[in-house]
Amino acid sequence: NCFLWLNSKENSFDMAWGIRFHPAVKKDLRWLPPEARVFILRDTIPAIVRDPYKGEPLHGPLRGFLKYRSSENRIAYSIDETRHEIVILEIGPRGGFYERLRRRLDR
Predict the structure, then answer these.
(1) Do the beta carbons of residue 92 and residue 22 sit within 8 Å?
(2) Interval 9-64: pLDDT, tens
(3) In what order do the strands lie in the sheet with 2-8?
(4) What is the pTM of this model?
């Protein structure tokens, strides 16, 4: 598990969001091309932390989770408002993404 605190100053007040990664996300990142990996870690994840509600809500069996598009890749995550924590669940290309996410959540 990886846990990192980042500050969001987009609002008029400073609200710290914790971010945690599902253990398998490390493997997800290894499968991405290096430039996509760098972009996601340097630009996309901080954008989610600045505004976690910017993601699109998922439907059906994945209701309660959000997705964020990062060029050709998707990032699925959940928000725990009580803990002020974002949990990154899956990162990967669109093809088969939602099936992989369902399998990961069923484990």
Answers:
(1) no
(2) 443 334 578 899 999 999 999 999 999 999 999 999 999 999 999 999 999 999 99
(3) 2-8, 15-21, 85-93, 73-80, 66-70, 56-57
(4) 0.84
